[in-house]
Amino acid sequence: MTTISDNVQATQARLNRACFAAQRPGDTVALLAVSKRQTAEAVRQAHAAGLCAFGENYVQEGLDKIAALADLRAVLQWHLIGPLQSNKTRAVAETFDWVHSVDRLKTAQRLSEQRPEGLAPLNVCLQVNISGEDSKSGVAPANVPALAHAVAALPRLRLRGLMSIPEPADTLDAQRAPHRALHLLFDQLNAEGLALDTLSMGMSADLEAAVHEGTTTVRIGTAIFGAREA
Ligand SMILES: *Cc1c(COP(=O)(O)O)cnc(C)c1O
């Protein structure tokens, strides 16, 4: 039987191969384990196998898991990667280390106001609707610069970069195109004076494409934890 520990090792090996193929040093891409709909025990196993950063999609599920793993709080980093409604910002500002899914100034303002003084500023990425899908959350590429500059000015947030969930595609070239577009936008923002260091792109199905296009953080669920319950 394959264990989570086997999967973590296999995923790290896959990431190293992708970095080698893209002529990048292996330690330039962080592995964020997406633990949505997985148990706290599964997170414990992934941590025992060497992982420290975990991504959750649903606020309440994430809060419950963080509480169940309170003994590991100092050594784990918790990232919210799913949609965030205004009425849930306080709990997120008080509990998580990162939010990858900021796509409105109002949400960012609330997170900044609600981030407790005793904690480091909350790390945030803007979620960009890079494939222009109607159904997807995320800010339209044309509106990213204005939002980025406004978010970067908020005192209790630290704007780290951009995140996207492109439309699924079958070939490597088709997978690379949206990642390349996100990277260009990221370079544009840095040329405008922002100091972004995070490109959160690439999941189990398109990790290699994302590594080729300069990702700094891949978000991997299935390849580490196996299939999720429906
Ligand atoms: C579920 C999810 C992932 C992980 O997807 P896998 O295909 O299981 O690797 C990554 N990012 C976001 C935003 C997700 O919702």
Low-confidence stretches: none
**How is the quaternary structure best described?**
single chain
Mean of the pLDDT scores? 96
Please outline the major beta sheet. 8 strands, parallel
What is the element string, with H for helices and E for strands? HEHEHEHEHEHEHEHEH
What does this entry look like structurally?
The chain has 230 residues and is of the alpha/beta class. It has one domain: Alanine racemase (TIM Barrel, Alpha-Beta Barrel), CATH 3.20.20. The protein has helices at 4-21, 40-48, 59-68, 89-95, 105-114, 144-152, 172-191, 207-212, 222-225; strands at residues 30-34, 53-56, 77-80, 98-102, 122-127, 157-163, 198-200, 217-220. The protein has an eight-stranded parallel sheet. Strand 4 (98-102), helix 5 and strand 5 form a beta-alpha-beta unit. Helix 4 (89-95) crosses helix 5. The chain is globular. The two termini are 22 Å apart. The structure holds pyridoxal-5'-phosphate. Pyridoxal-5'-phosphate binds at residues 34, 36, 57, 81-82, 165, 203-205, 219-223.
List key phrases describing it.
single chain; 230 residues; alpha/beta; TIM Barrel; eight-stranded parallel sheet; 40% helix; binds pyridoxal-5'-phosphate
Question: Can you summarize this structure?
Answer:
An 8-stranded parallel beta sheet has the order 7-6-5-4-3-2-1-8. It has 230 residues and is α/β, with parallel strands linked by helices. 40% of the residues lie in helices and 17% in strands.
